[in-house]
Every structure is written in structure tokens, then in C-alpha cells.
Design goal:
The structure holds 2 protein chains of 2 kinds. Chain A is an alpha/beta fold. Chain A has helices at about 5-10, 35-45, 70-85, 100-105, 140-150, 175-185, 200-205, 205-215, 230-235, 285, 300, 305-315, 330-340, 345-350, 400-410, and strands at about 20-25, 30-35, 60, 90-95, 115-120, 135, 150-155, 155-165, 190-195, 225, 255-260, 270, 280, 295, 325, 355, 375-380, 395. In chain A, helix 12 packs parallel to helix 15. In chain A, about 60% of the residues are buried. In chain B, helix 2 (about 35-45) packs across helix 4 (about 80-90) and helix 6 (about 160-165) crosses helix 7. Chain B is α/β, with parallel strands linked by helices. The chains are: A alpha/beta, B alpha/beta.
């Protein structure tokens, strides 16, 4: 069996499972955030039970609409806080304590290899970086998980994405992922799992790997996953003292498909043009496209190495005077490290605005909303029409290096020029 | 269980941001079912007219019991249940598509509305056709053209019971009631 099949078999109490089998599994972690948390709680209350199945397995993170932008968002967060207190949930991250949920789940050691995480968010796939089965569900379903601790799942067949060779900076894992999505398309992995393997992946930092698992959902995949290795174990060592079992694919595991990629073949940074994450082209094809906003952040690319890359390009330079440049660290921990390294000072000197560690303008939520016809280049994960505001705004997806270079010129630019 | 209705033909890659825009996600009082339903029905599909995968007159003309037949990859994107709720509260009773995104698939069923993925089905339907779906029998019939298709769904065994109960929450409420009744009987 593949890694995912083994996790699902174990959690279903079965010896073996096969792709497309329906199983019922026990959940190890369930996360809600402010965007759908109050909604989950309202449905849970309709189920006629007083207590959640296990408050120690629930994580609550406020990240989409905080600090609250209006009375509606404040009211929903109050409901969530009340629930957390009433249920005795310890793992609660108020604004200023955590950051973007997917980052917090991994960096606080809430996701262990071989476990199952569900959350009311499609980018829950990010946590597959720890060798866990991590996937998104809706609020009614989460209400039932809160009651029972159980989830049904259709066992996804595994598509193996094998990457060999070396990514040559400033080409980043984001460029690789945009290329993978170009090959798969936005529905190429429906009800399948993406498992990333190969030398390029094993040589990547945990941060770079998280880009791959994060955007697995953009291919329609149920989840994205990477086998735990020494890097994973070292990462977890300082973050949790909980025991866990490392599960790996069987040597004779059957894959639905294996797609081979050569990192050396990626000659130039990639940009996904509107309005699909699978619309990747080389940056030189869209170079010179005028932009109104440049966003560096999100659960895809708001981590320390992303900020380091952007700072390397922005250091000692000024961003275009008419371009709104927004930098948002993915978590308090990332912000703290970026401050200590002087990265935040570089961004401020360059003329970027720093946002609090939240989702920011990845979606039309809280800030950085786009007006009619505006163009944004973003390190986030989706560029659907209307994703970040007006339906006529246009979103280009790229790496932190490409977004930083574009911020300098006020138009889509090749980061190799500044690197 | 048979569902009958009038067809609305949608294109491919209908995404959740399109079905329900982020700007409305924090609106509505989710503790009041009726107020919430009204809010979602009013706010969903706010940008229709700018997209080529949803018929421009859908919002004006959709009526209770209509059924969407869509091309591939329906419901791509976010886990926001409001996307599925939008269609339900506009009156759509089922979605049939060449393929359906996992989270939307689950969300729509959980609301008591079948989502049926059958590769190639979309070419057999146009807006205005009449469709009949036999859920337990696994057949879809185009009543206008007379063509019939078979499907088999990969779903839990209790899923159609859940639809008959009105969705996931009512289904769990009914299980709870059965349990407490059998307890008190003892």
C-alpha cells in the first residue's frame, strides 16, 4: 500500500484498503478557524450533545478576519471564544498568538506523522508535509466530527510526483508547483492523493515542501503528502513530545500514476496567469504586465525562507511608487524571526506595508481587496475571478522572488535581474 | 428515490469563489436557519454575468426543483459550505456533472442534495431539458430526448438514507432520537 492507504487502513482498523474504497476513520486532529468556526459551532449545537468528543484533539486558530474588521466578524469570534472556554479547548490561538492556521498547525507540532487531520479549509492539505493525511471538509461534517471523532473517506489512489535534479535560485518550489499544476490541470487529481518523492523533494526545506502540499488541492486532489524523513523528525523534535509512528509507503506500493519532473529543466520562474492556478507560463511571456498590487504572504508562501528571498531582492531598493506592496508573515513565529534577521526593516525601507500574521489578501476577506480592473501579483494559491475582490480584477500567481522583483518595477518582472 | 426537474446547463470549472464570494462569508446569522438561508440565497452567485460557465439568466429564472448539469470539475476550490448552500437555497435539488470536486461533492450531499459525477454526461443535456434521476436505481434519463444513462456512485452505504432524512445534520438528529428512544424503552 501507499503511505496514504496505510494511514487510512490503520485509522480505519483494517489490515488493508484499496483506492476508491469507502472507510470510516478516527480523526487525530480537527481544526476550525474564524471564517467557518462559528458556523461549525452552530451546527454542532443542533446535534443535541453538550460536549465535543475530545477537546484535546481540537485546534482553534483565528486567521481570516482578525483583528476583526467589523461587528459581524467580531460577533463570530466571540462565539468561537465562548465555545473554546465552555469545551475546555487548550489549543486556541487568538490573534497575536498564532498566525495562519496551516502554518500554526505544523509549526506548533499539532500534526504528527501517520495521523489524520481535518479542518474546515481546503488548504488543510498543507499539513501533509509531516507525513499525515490532512484534508478539508465543510462545516456540517465538522460538526459531526466534533460529536463523534469519526470521518468517512473515499480512499484516494496515489499519484506519485517524482522530482529529480536541482532547483536553481531564484527558482523556488513555487515555480516547480506551478509547473506540476500545469501538467495536472485543475481537475487532474480529483479523488486522488499527490505524493511527492525524489531527490529534489528530499533536499528541500520543510518550508519549501509545504508549498507542494499546500497547492495539491489546486489539482483537485484529496490531499498532498510527503514521507517523513530525518528533516521531518528534526523539525518535530523541538515542537512536540507526543509519540508517533512514522509510516512509509511499501516498496511494492501501487500508484495510480507516476509523473516525472526534472528540476533542472525549469529554466525560468513561472507565473500562473488569470484565472486558474494551472495556467503557468514562463515569466518572460508576461514580463512587463502592469500591476497595482504585489502580495507576499499566505499559507503558500509567507514563511521565513520566502521573506528572506523577497528581502534579498528588495534590500537597498525602493518599490514602485504606485504599487501597493503588502508583506504578511505567515505566523507570529515567522514575524519574530524576520524581525530578528532585519528582514522587516528591509521591507519597510523599500516601501512595503507589513500586515499582521493572518491570511491577508489571499482571498476577499479582510484587507488588500482589489477594485475593478486592478492587477495583483501574489504568492498565494488561487487566482480565480473575483477571488480577492472585484470580478474584473486579475490575479497572477508567482514565487516570492518574482513578486518582489515585480514590486520594484510596478510590472511583472524576472527576479533573475535582481538576484 | 426519484428526482425530476428542469435542466440548467453549466460549463466547466465552476469554482466556489464564483458560487459564493469571500466578501459575504462572514455575513448571515448561522444560529437562525431561516435568516441564514435568506442571507445565503441573496448573496450567492453575485458575479453571474461576468462568467461564461453559468447561464446569465440563471439567477432570474431558477425555480425550486431545478437540476444543474455541468461539465467537468464542478465546485473547485474552497471548503466554504456556502457555495453548496447557495445552490440549495436557490432551489437546485441536484447537481450532475462530468466530474465534481471532493469538498463540494461532500458538502452538497450533506445538505441533502445529491451530487452525481458521471464522465461525459454533460453533452447529453441542454438548458431547458427535463431530467429524471433514480437515485437508488442508478439511472439518469433525459426526458426530452429519451436517452438514459447508468451511474454508480462511490458513497457511504447510508448516504441515500441521509438524503431522505434531509441532510447530514437531520440524519444525525434522527439517529440520536432512535438511540435515546431505545434507551428509555429499556
Amino acid at each position: 500500500m501507499t503511505l496514504v492507504e496505510k494511514i487510512l487502513a490503520k485509522k480505519a482498523g483494517k489490515k488493508a484498503v484499496r483506492p476508491d474504497q469507502i472507510v470510516e476513520v478516527s480523526v487525530d486532529r480537527a481544526m476550525i478557524h474564524d471564517a467557518l468556526g462559528a458556523h461549525t459551532i452552530a451546527r454542532f449545537r443542533e446535534l443535541g450533545v453538550k460536549k465535543v468528543w475530545d477537546p484535546a484533539k481540537i485546534v482553534v486558530v483565528l486567521d481570516h478576519y482578525v483583528p476583526n474588521k467589523d461587528i459581524d466578524t467580531a460577533k463570530k469570534c466571540l462565539n468561537i471564544k465562548k465555545f473554546v472556554l465552555e469545551q475546555g479547548i487548550e489549543d486556541y490561538y487568538e490573534v497575536g498568538k498564532g498566525g495562519i492556521a496551516h502554518q500554526v498547525l505544523v509549526e506548533k507540532g499539532h500534526v504528527l506523522p501517520g495521523t489524520i487531520l481535518v479542518a474546515v479549509d481546503s488548504h488543510t492539505t498543507t499539513s501533509g508535509v509531516m507525513g499525515a493525511f490532512a484534508t478539508g471538509i465543510g462545516v456540517d461534517e465538522m460538526a459531526v466530527v466534533f460529536k463523534t471523532g469519526k470521518l468517512w473517506e473515499r480512499v484516494p489512489g496515489t499519484i506519485r510526483i517524482n522530482v529529480e535534479g536541482k532547483l536553481k535560485p531564484p527558482i523556488m518550489s513555487k515555480d516547480l508547483m506551478l509547473l506540476i499544476l500545469k501538467r495536472l490541470g485543475v481537475s487532474g487529481a480529483l479523488f486522488k492523493s499527490l505524493q511527492y518523492t525524489g531527490l529534489t523533494v528530499s533536499q528541500m526545506s520543510i518550508e519549501s515542501r509545504m508549498v507542494l502540499t499546500n497547492m495539491a488541492i489546486e489539482s483537485g486532489a484529496t490531499n498532498g503528502i510527503i514521507e517523513p524523513d530525518q528533516k521531518t523528525l528534526d523539525f518535530l523534535k523541538t515542537r512536540t513530545n507526543q509519540p508517533f509512528e512514522v509510516i512509509q509507503s511499501d516498496p511494492n506500493a501501487e500508484y495510480a500514476e507516476t509523473l516525472e519532473f526534472q528540476a533542472d529543466d525549469i529554466k525560468q520562474p513561472m507565473v500562473a496567469v488569470p484565472s486558474k492556478p494551472s495556467n503557468a507560463v514562463g515569466v518572460t511571456e508576461v514580463e512587463g504586465t502592469k500591476i497595482d498590487q504585489a502580495f507576499i504572504g499566505s499559507c503558500t508562501n509567507g514563511r521565513l525562507e520566502d521573506l528572506r528571498m523577497a528581502a534579498r531582492i528588495l534590500k537597498g531598493r525602493k518599490v514602485d511608487r504606485f504599487t501597493k506592496v503588502i508583506v504578511i508573515p505567515a505566523s507570529q513565529e515567522v514575524l519574530k524571526a524576520a524581525l530578528a534577521e532585519g528582514l522587516i526593516a528591509i521591507f519597510v525601507e523599500a516601501g512595503a506595508v507589513i500586515g499582521p500574521p493572518t491570511c491577508g489578501p489571499c482571498m476577499e476577506a479582510h484587507m488588500g481587496i482589489l477594485g475593478p480592473g486592478e492587477v495583483c501579483i501574489s504568492t498565494a494559491n488561487r487566482n480565480f475571478q473575483g477571488r480577492v475582490g472585484d470580478v474584473t480584477a486579475k490575479i497572477y500567481l508567482a514565487s516570492p522572488a518574482t513578486v518582489a522583483a515585480s514590486a520594484l518595477k510596478g510590472k511583472i518582472s524576472d527576479p533573475r535581474e535582481f538576484f | 428515490m426519484e428526482l425530476k426537474g428542469r435542466v440548467w446547463k453549466f460549463g466547466k470549472d465552476v469554482d466556489t469563489d464564483e458560487l459564493f464570494a469571500g466578501r459575504f462569508m462572514m455575513g448571515g446569522d448561522e444560529t437562525s436557519r431561516s435568516q441564514y438561508q435568506e442571507f445565503i440565497a441573496k448573496s450567492g452567485l453575485s458575479d453571474v454575468g461576468h462568467r461564461d460557465n453559468v447561464p446569465g439568466d440563471f439567477l432570474k429564472k431558477v425555480v425550486k426543483g431545478d437540476i444543474i448539469v455541468a461539465e467537468e470539475n464542478f465546485g473547485i476550490g474552497s471548503s466554504r459550505q456556502q457555495a453548496a448552500e447557495t445552490l440549495k437555497f436557490k432551489g437546485v435539488q441536484a447537481v450532475v456533472a462530468d466530474s465534481i470536486h471532493r469538498i463540494f461533492f461532500r458538502n452538497f450531499w450533506n445538505l441533502g442534495c445529491p451530487a452525481i459525477d458521471l464522465p461525459g454526461i454533460s453533452v447529453a443535456f441542454e438548458t431547458g431539458h427535463e431530467i429524471a434521476i433514480n437515485l437508488r436505481g442508478g439511472t439518469i434519463k433525459n426526458l426530452t430526448t429519451g436517452r438514459e444513462f447508468e451511474f454508480s456512485l462511490i458513497i457511504p452505504s447510508w448516504f441515500i438514507d441521509m438524503v431522505e432524512a434531509g441532510g447530514l445534520i437531520p440524519y444525525h438528529q434522527s439517529i440520536q432520537n432512535v438511540k435515546s428512544k431505545s434507551k428509555s424503552a429499556r
